[in-house]
Structures are given as structure tokens and as C-alpha cells.
């Protein structure tokens, strides 16, 4: 199962030298995530460096049996949240109860998604509130399970589902607006 | 209504988070409901679009080296100087490994994209009103239908005595290469088989074996210069049996 990227670390693997083995394969993905969060190359580089420095320092307190990947992403995200950009961009999301997901009928919109080229999608993603952007990236690009996302963002699984749902709805709306705007030359 | 009941589960189904029994029941519903299949297609498209657009930024080699150095030196700080003789070649290997990691990352992304494309083709075919262009359970009808439509030929297995039924075929395009797309059925599950020349670089480099994508099982291999992909929501065992039949025929 190549899509499932499990990084539960056993006691045996948790040796002094294993940080490098565990952390460096995540480098490309962490950078991509950092750049999406900060929207700036220099800031993303600083954020990744800070993440590795903090993780290396805290590795002795990392508990065997927990998810290493989620742990690394959580460090990166917390560092981002406490940065100037992070403080500016995070918005307060309301009503994140996972008890009842909306079940409204959405008409199939295959055509408009097919029309959305990569650049339009990237612009729409970049303009989403950062909480929506990050959860979409963790789910679709990093292919994290709901459990891993829950560990990374420190939110209950019910909230993962409802936030993911709202993030997808927000992206659809943004894409539709961009495509229709483009079509009518607005 | 049944559809209302399922709509709330579609995202969890496509994210691979629905328990197996519920996923199987939803899959059964999708085969009979055009509205929900259309909905699934739209959501698969959105997932794939985000997946492709989201893998956007690559770090500089300079940053990689800087961090690798920091991480590496910390791990090795307690090691006696005499070990340097061993560590220098090891470092060379580590650097080579970084390049290899980049290469593997690229390979993984390419593999991912192709598998997603196959899953899309499979789902969109099942969602369309005309499942296949040549409707026949007779391999001697289906195989000749492809003559003149695709630039290669292939053999199809005799299914007598097996649980599999051939539904028909159509022409599909993968990586802009015309491909034979065959639909088989086992019990209530549809399975897509894609056959195409193994010439596109990204397809050529795919490893043989099994994989899972968007909760579909997949089997792929190369035989006589052709690449085979078998994908569907049937059990892994079913896919392997059909793959064996195809291998033996090819």
C-alpha cells in the first residue's frame, strides 16, 4: 500500500541516529507545506529550518509509538502560528462541531473543475483562509488520514471532517468565481 | 431518501475513511445511482486537482544541504574523531541519498498522478451512461473490435469456469497514448483493465505489483512490451486472480 505512509515509530527505531533517517525524507513535503502557509520562499526556508532545529532539540522527548510525521508537521505549524505572518493570517473559524455534516445536494460540477487549470487552482488555494488551505493540503497532498490530521492540527476527528467539508466547499466557490470571472473578462 | 443518506458519506468514502462494510454498501449504491456517481466524479476531480496543484513548491538544494548538515552533525557529535574515516564516505552516501530522495519523490509524484488518472478513468466510465463501446462477453468479438482503433494487439483470457465476466471494451487515452480499456465484472463489482504500449517514460518506470489508490485496489505489470493496469473496488484477491488470467493469456 504505497499511499499509506505510516510513521509510527517503535522503541527500537528511536535511537540517537534515527532522527536524521526519519526527518530528512520529510524535507520536500515539509518545505512545500511551509511555503503554502507562508506564501513566501524566504519565510518558508526560515520556518523549515526552525522546525528541524526544534525537532532535533525535542527528539529526546518524542514518545515512541506516536506518529513522527504528524509530530513534525505539528512543530512546523506551531512555529508558523507564533510567527508574525501566522498571527496575521490565522482567522477564527466558528461552529466546528463534527456532529452533523451538512448533506445538502450539490449539483455535479465536473465541467467547471475540468476547466480549472493548475494556475487557477493554485491561486484559489492561496487565497483560502489558512486553516482551510492547510487541511486540504494535509488531506490531498500529504494523504494524511483523519487521525493524523487530528494529531497534526490538535483538533478532534469530528472537527477534521467538518473543516475539510467546509474547506472543499470554499474551494469550489472560489474556483467557480475565478472561472466565471475569467469567462466574462472580469 | 437513500441518496441523502449517502451524500454525507461521500467524502469519507473517497478519503478512505469509511469502514469496509459501509464502503462496500456505498459502492453498491453508486453502481445503481447516476446522481451519486456524478457527485463522486466531481469530488474525485476536485481531490485530484488539489493534489496536483498542491505539490507546487520545491526547496533549494542549498537549504537541503544546510539542514542536512545541521541534522547530521548533531547526530554525530558524540562520535570519536577516528570515525571520520568512516563518516566521510558515509556523508558522500548521505548526499547521494538526498539526490536519490529527490528522485524518488519525483517518481512517487509521477506514479501518484498516473494512478489517480486511472482511478478517474475507471470512475468516470462507471458513471457514464454508455459503459463500453463494444458490448460483448465474447473475447473473440471484443478483441477484433480494437483493430484499427489502437496501434497494438493483445490476448484476452478464456473465462469459462471463472467468476469473471467480460462486459466489453472501449478506447481510452492515458498519457496521450491510445489504450484498450476492458470492463470485467465479478459478482457486483466492475473491474477496469487498461492495456497500452509500455513506452511513455513515466509508465515504463512504474514498478510491477499492487497498490491502493482512493480505496481502489490496483495491480500492474509489463508483458510483451505492453503495460497492464487492473483497477477496481473488488477484493485484492479477485484482482490478483483476474491479473493471473490476463498474464497467462498474454
Report on the structure:
The complex is a heterodimer of chains A (about 190) and B (about 250). Chain A is an all-alpha fold and about 190 residues long. Chain A has 2 domains: about 10-90, RNA polymerase sigma factor, region 2, helix turn helix motif (Rna Polymerase Sigma Factor, Chain: A, Orthogonal Bundle); about 95-185, Winged helix-like DNA-binding domain superfamily/Winged helix DNA-binding domain (Arc Repressor Mutant, subunit A), CATH 1.10.10.10. Helices cover about 65% and strands about 0% of the residues of chain A. Chain A contains 10 helices and no strands. Chain A has helices at about 20-25, 25-40, 40-60, 70-80, 85-90, 110-115, 120-125, 130-140, 145-155, 155-185. In chain A, α8 (about 130-140) crosses α10 (about 155-185) and α9 packs across α10 (about 155-185). Chain A starts with 17 loop residues before the first helix and ends with a helix. Chain B is α+β, with helices and mostly antiparallel strands. Chain B folds into 2 domains: about 1-55; about 60-250, 2-Layer Sandwich (Phosphorylase Kinase, domain 1). Chain B has 9 helices and 7 strands. Chain B has helices at about 1-5, 10-15, 20-30, 35-55, 60-75, 85-125, 140-145, 200-205, 235-250, and strands at about 135, 165-175, 175-185, 190-195, 210-215, 215-225, 225-230. Chain B has a 7-stranded antiparallel beta sheet. In chain B, β2 and β3 (about 175-185) form a beta hairpin. The radius of gyration of chain B is 23 Å and the shape is globular. The model of chain B is unreliable at about 80 (pLDDT under 50). Classes of the chains: A mainly alpha (about 190), B alpha+beta (about 250). At the A-B interface, α1, α2, α3, α6 and α7 of A face α4, α5, α6 and β5 of B.
Short description:
The complex is a heterodimer of chains A (186) and B (250). Chain A has 186 residues and is mainly alpha-helical. Helices cover 64% and strands 0% of the residues of chain A.
